[in-house]
């Protein structure tokens, strides 16, 4: 007989969890986690194949405890026992709770007390949200027949505004070595306010891999606290979530609430992203917000990637068929290698709603704040000749400094994939006579442009541009 007071590995069924999806398993799963957390060095909690309903306050992760399932046959469904009216916001000042969480959206945990958050994680499972009382047998019956049996999403109005898939938010007042180092692996998340939010100052050394996030009211993947968050009212405050690695993360159908959110938003620094994809983010904001002159965060509605952190690296990542810009390069010293921006503001009824229209966004929007950026072999593409998509391939703001784009490519099938264009579609420089252009090197479609300090780009001036 296993002594669960001493065991480093437990099964939630032994704590009364219900794998049939009939009753609420939140307390049973939480008790299993607490049992392992009480053992010196922690251990693992197994959630076997089945459907498990969990209600708020959902499941708190614990120090040195890894929770794992049996792949996508383990389904965890976070629901509201008392369904709330869904309230969408344009900004990032509304909290939510993770089905699995260490801390909350607004509040961190980790004061070196009873739950010192290190080496915890979630892997090998399917997490869903529902703004439905699934303890009601009639509602549960319909949910199982349509959403579970047929593998369908809930209707948009039943995607909760207060439930995230996974939230990690740690901070240590005393030095903790070597940071929290959580793991999120082989997880699929559907129908939540936010898919995964990594927010804490000590949520570092993370490994996030093989993750798919689909249908979120706000961001799919949020790396760091955005400006406007309860603990980051000003841009100069610490965003958290630095020094993490992300591999094969895919986000689709984000920003269903229509606010100023992108599919993947990066505010942390020195993170690495490999083979990650953002597509089908929704936009209902007008093009004036896409090119807003004073508030750069209004530009990210429906964006694939919004990069407002610095010194990050992106390798083989893509932004495809998003309602807003494909990529927003908003801060300095980021590196992009073999990345693609494709079919932004794509002509369809899925990603463009309200005041949003096709032929408005850019596949690459490079801000004047993106000094030191390096883009190696970036591609912009509108590959479908029968559909309108991005207005610009590469859109560059004035006052750029120390920018290098090498071996770039821009193609638009609607104009026959010509390498040159008379309407600035491939490469557009925003002009402002009061603000000088600074040093840059741009090589797109085999055309090389270089400039020194000047207020205007003029191909007739030898000191300004050289081909």
Main sheet specs: 11 strands, parallel
Helix tally equals 3
Overall pLDDT, averaged?
Answer: 89
Number of strands: 32
**Alpha carbon gyration radius:** 23 Å
Structurally, the number of domains stands at 2
How much of the polypeptide forms β-strand, as a percent range?
25-35%
What structural category do the secondary elements indicate? mainly beta
Proportion in helices: under 10%
Q: What is the 3D form?
A: globular
| Multimeric organization | single chain
What strand line-up does the widest sheet have?
5-8-10-12-14-16-19-22-25-28-30
Spatial gap, N to C terminus? 78 Å
Low-pLDDT stretches are 458-467
Q: How would you explain this protein's 3D organization?
A:
Helices cover 6% and strands 34% of the residues. It folds into 2 domains: 1-180, no CATH class; 253-467. A hairpin with a 2-residue loop joins strand 31 and strand 32. The protein has 3 helices and 32 strands. It is mainly β and 467 residues long. An 11-stranded parallel β-sheet has the order 5-8-10-12-14-16-19-22-25-28-30.
